[in-house]
Each structure stands twice: as structure tokens, then as C-alpha cells.
């Protein structure tokens, strides 16, 4: 029976544990609004100095390769004021964000701003109400729980550390992000199975995205597609090929059609 074979639950975040709008409507606007204050407050820290250097190098590359450029002014012998350098850095960041770019320098700085935001209570990690009870229950059933999300492992950890339900990080046995492989690529799921030392068919993967579901299924994993409000709709024709759940409480055997 399936429930006894499942040893591991592998969870997607956006659209599965967390509303899809969390990143676009909360994290990104928070970074845009707070980057100036963050740079101002941490200007003399070595990490901030490093990330400014990274942004400046990126701006030089962009000037040559990317058409438009927003250079970062360099202070020479104090002739250019800190304020001007900072302002040009903020302009560069907002310009990159407006193009939805994912440069390493930008991601690094966004990560720093978000960390500060979470720690100060300015950002609260959003998870659906059914997530913590499901994690507790899976734990009681001795299932191992992993996260696989395109958000960086650091960002995943921040989200689950600072939720309104408290720190949920302790429930997870490990985290994977797209550095491990693309989520639409079957090989990534085989690699995860290998990394956590179990067979693909011992893993149940939960996701909202059909391409991820297909990749995981072709790697031999069990998959439930999670239908949360606001998730991208999957065509009726396609949807009938999947087992679907509307929230994580439906995983469990005492709910109708539950499997675990
Ligand atoms: Mg998702």
C-alpha cells in the first residue's frame, strides 16, 4: 500500500505551503522599499562593501552587454559623497528589479535586505494554516520532510523560521534549491532521491506546477498536485491525470481519499 511505502514528503513552497503572491507582492516590494535604508544603515559593513563591489562589476558588464546601464558612481579620494554612491547603487538595484533580473549581485543584496526584514519583524513568512499541523502529523508518522524550491536555501530557511506560527524550520530534514537542478527536469528528482538516500517511489512530491509534477512522475516519484486559491490553473484535460489535494490536511488517510 502506498502509505507505507512513502517515507519522504518533498514540498514545493510557492503555491504549495505558501501563497504564490508572497514573493511578488511582499518580498520584492519589501526589498525595493527598504534597500536604501538598508544600505544606509550597513554602509560600513564589509558584507555591504562587498555587495556594492559586485553590483559595480555587474553594472560594467551590463554597460557592455545589456544595452542600457545604470552605473554605480565610484568615490575617489572622497570627492564623490557617500550619498551619491548610495543613490546610484539604489537606482541600479531598482533598475535591475524592474527588469526582473536574477544577477548574483542583486540576489545577494535582496537576500541581505530580506534577512534584516525577517529579523526585525518587517517581513513575516506566510504559510497556509494547514501547514504546521501537517508537518506535526508527518513528524509523528516518522516521515522525513524536505523542501525543494527555486528560492535559495537561505531564503527558504528565513521564510520558515519567521512565520506567524513560530519557527517551523525544525520540521525539515533538509532543503534543495535550483542550484541542485531545475524543477522541470526529471534528473533533479532522481538526484534528490539519491542525496537523501531513498528510492524515488518512496518520495511523495507536492507541487502546484504541472511541469514539475511531470518531471517528478517520470523520475518515479509519487506526486500530488496542490490546488490553492490563486495558483496557476491547469487545464481540465491535464488535471485529471494527477491526484490533487486542496490543502495538506487532505494528505492523511482519515480524510477522504487521503494517502498517508
Ligand atoms: Mg510552486
TrEMBL record:
Organism phylogeny: Eukaryota, Metazoa, Chordata, Tunicata, Ascidiacea
One Pfam family linked to the record: Hydrolase
Organism per entry: Ciona intestinalis (Transparent sea squirt)
Keywords noted in UniProt: Amino-acid biosynthesis, Hydrolase, Methionine biosynthesis
One example GO MF annotation: acireductone synthase activity
InterPro entries: Enolase-ppase_E1 (IPR023943), HAD-like_sf (IPR036412), HAD-SF_hydro_IA (IPR006439), HAD_sf (IPR023214)
SUPFAM superfamilies: HAD-like (SSF56784)
GO biological process, one term: L-methionine salvage from methylthioadenosine
Signal peptide: none
Name of the protein this chain belongs to: Enolase-phosphatase E1
CDD domains registered for this protein in UniProt: HAD_EP
The keyword Hydrolase is annotated on this UniProt entry: yes
Amino acid at each position: 500500500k502506498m502509505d507505507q511505502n512513502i517515507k519522504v514528503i518533498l514540498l514545493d513552497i510557492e503555491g504549495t505551503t505558501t501563497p504564490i503572491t508572497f514573493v511578488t507582492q511582499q518580498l520584492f516590494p519589501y526589498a525595493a522599499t527598504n534597500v536604501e535604508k538598508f544600505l544606509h544603515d550597513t554602509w560600513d559593513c564589509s558584507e555591504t562593501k562587498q555587495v556594492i563591489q559586485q553590483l559595480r562589476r555587474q553594472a560594467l558588464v551590463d554597460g557592455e552587454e545589456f544595452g542600457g546601464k545604470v552605473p554605480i558612481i565610484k568615490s575617489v579620494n572622497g570627492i564623490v559623497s557617500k550619498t551619491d554612491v548610495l543613490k546610484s547603487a539604489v537606482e541600479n538595484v531598482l533598475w535591475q528589479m524592474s527588469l526582473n533580473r536574477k544577477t548574483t549581485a542583486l540576489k545577494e543584496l535582496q537576500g541581505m535586505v530580506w534577512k534584516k526584514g525577517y529579523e526585525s519583524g518587517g517581513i513575516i513568512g506566510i504559510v497556509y494554516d494547514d501547514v504546521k499541523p501537517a508537518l506535526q502529523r508527518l513528524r509523528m508518522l516518522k516521515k522525513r520532510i524536505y523542501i525543494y524550491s527555486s528560492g535559495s536555501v537561505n531564503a527558504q530557511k528565513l521564510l520558515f523560521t519567521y512565520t506567524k506560527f513560530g519557527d517551523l524550520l525544525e520540521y525539515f530534514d533538509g532543503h534543495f534549491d535550483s542550484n541542485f537542478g531545475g524543477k522541470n527536469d526529471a534528473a533533479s528528482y532522481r538526484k534528490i532521491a539519491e542525496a537523501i538516500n531513498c528510492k524515488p517511489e518512496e518520495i511523495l512530491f507536492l507541487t502546484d506546477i504541472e511541469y514539475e509534477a511531470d518531471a517528478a512522475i517520470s523520475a518515479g516519484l509519487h506526486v500530488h498536485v496542490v490546488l490553492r486559491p490563486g495558483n496557476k490553473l491547469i487545464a481540465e484535460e491535464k488535471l485529471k491525470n494527477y491526484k490533487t489535494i486542496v490543502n495538506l490536511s487532505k494528505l492523511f488517510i482519515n480524510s477522504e481519499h487521503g494517502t498517508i
